[in-house]
Every structure is written in structure tokens, then in C-alpha cells.
What does this fold into?
Amino acid sequence: MKPQAITDNRGEFKRLGEGLYQYSHTREFYARFRHKGERIMQKLGSTEHPCTDMAEARRRLRDLKNTLDHTDSRKSNKTFGDVIGEYEAVMHFADKTLIYKKLHLERLRTEFPRRPITKTRDIQKSDVVKFLAQYNHLSHSSWNAILTLTRNVFEHAVDDGVIAHSPAASITYRKREDKIKRLIPSWSEFENIVTHVRTQKYADTAKESADLIEFMGVAGLGQAECAGLTWGDVNFKTQKIAIIRKKTAKEFSIPIYPTLLPLLQRMDSEREDKNATAKVFSVKDPKVALEAACQRLKLPKYSARAFRRMFITRALELGIDAQTIAQWQGHKDGGQLILRVYARVSDEHTKRMAAKMSAPTNKDKATTNIPTATLPS
It folds into this structure.
């Protein structure tokens, strides 16, 4: 078929293929075809980067047709500001999450390289990269959170038929920095902290704070579980304590361990309110007392969570299986989280375990039925 030409006052549009035209005045390529009954006439390039290469023009034409097949032409002129507003209206997160999500949305509105009135279909990956580069000074986790929100907005546009592909889809997350090592006190450090807090003469809640810290260490519970604990939850007859895990609102129980029993018996004998609904602890957060004790004792800045980790790692080192510890912690994963997150092997434990790797005795051989010939020389 002989190429057709369309002329205007300045030059000629010469047809070079199905739906592909070149303007003689600027040598730029244009797409011209019908799609679902609508006439399409569009430049295959931009003012900054005009398309004057045949191979590139054919690729851009294919991309344009693919985009039209996967988008709604009635929404092709929707601005980026419109998309941001629509996403904000339908996003559903917890209240705390919404706070920083809206902060990132405001950043998109005010700091995106192209103004919000820009058509969403015209936004390129380079625009998103330029936007994210403004936050290179932030931590990797914060930078990744901004990228996630940006991706969500463009994915909303894809789902709505505004664009066929997200310009943020191929931008990769940054690897998070090595996590800060979880501080875990030794048993002697824990005892020193409890004693130090309890013996402060001029602190109004010294005894109460010390009781809470000691309980967290010997019971392996966090502040949230301790805050709601009542004396009705403590059953000395069955030697169990009923707990509501704050994160999951699930009920579980823990034994009254030998190291825990004397503390509870003393606290029970000293309490004035004998009602079952009375709270076990009058102090909710021992942070101030704990920080002061660590500072005076020249110890690392241990948090209340550190004592829970101490309990778990100590239990593992004493040979208690991870599944049992997980049950005591109210976990339902059979101990996988315990081993992955909380397990720590101390130098002392390593030495004790290494000492067990001695050559087998005759008694060991007989017990395990290992033939002498199979043992390494």
C-alpha cells in the first residue's frame, strides 16, 4: 500500500506504516489510528525528548496501543492530584499508620517534580526517582515507607484504568541497615538492677517499680500484659497465672515458676486491697527508675523488653524446648519466632556445650550402639 501524506501549513505528515506518521517539518513521529471508535492523534515523544528514530517510534507505538487496551480513555486526562485525592479517600489503615501515610501523601502533592495538575499518564520513572532522591538523607526504612506509599498511589491509578503500568513498579527497595543488636542483660545484671531500684531512698515508687521489673524478668512478660494483671488472674492452687496477650487479645497461661513464687507470695501478703479485681502492679511503666539504675550501675540502656528477652534466652540455655517457651509467651507458631528472634547463645553456654563434645567413652558406645569400627580414628 502506497504511503499516504497529510499536509498542514508548515509541513507534511507522511505515513510510514500502520498508524505511524512522521512530520516533515521536525522529523518527529506521531501515532494516528482509531481505537474503539475514537480517533487517536498523539506525538510519540516529548518536547524534551522528541522521537525521531524509526525503531523507537515503532516501540512507542506498540506501548501506546498496549496502554490504550488496558486503560479507560475517559480517564486519560486525570491529573496526578486527582489520583492522590482518590487514593486518600479509599485507603484504610490503623489510626497510627494513617498519620504517616497522610504525611507521605502531602509530600507527593507538594514536592513531586511535576505539579499535581500534570496528567498521570505523562509521569515517567525518572520523575519518581527524582522525587525519592529528596529523601536520601532519611533512614532506609523511612525511605522505603515513602516508596511504598508512592507505589500504592500509582497502583491505584493502574487499577482504576488511568495508566497501564506504574512508573514506580521497577524501583527497588533499599536494604535496611543492620538491625541494632538487641540488648540482653545477664542474670547478675538483672539482679543488680532490681536491688538498685528497690533500695532508692527518695523515690516514691521504688519498691513498686522494682517489683514490676523483677516480675517481668522472672515471668517473661511484657509491660502490656503486666498492666492488666489482677490478683484474680493469679491462682496459687493451680500454680498458674492467666494472661491476655495484648497484641492478639488471646488468653494463655504461664506457670508460677520457682523463681517467681516468692515474689508473688510476698506481694500478696503485703497488699491492702484483697479483692480479686485489684491490680497486681500500681506502676505501669518503670522506665524512669530503670534508666536511672542502668546509668548509676554503668550498664547499657536496658529497656523493659530486655528482661523478656533475658527470660527467653535463659530458658533456651537451660535446655527448655522452644515450643514450650512459645506456649509460655502466648505464641502459636510452635517456637519458630522464639528461635528466629530471641535465641542467643552466651559464651558460657557455648563453652558448656563444647565440653560435651568429648570423645565417646565405652559406656557411651554401648548406650548408643555405635560400632567401634565406625568411629573416626
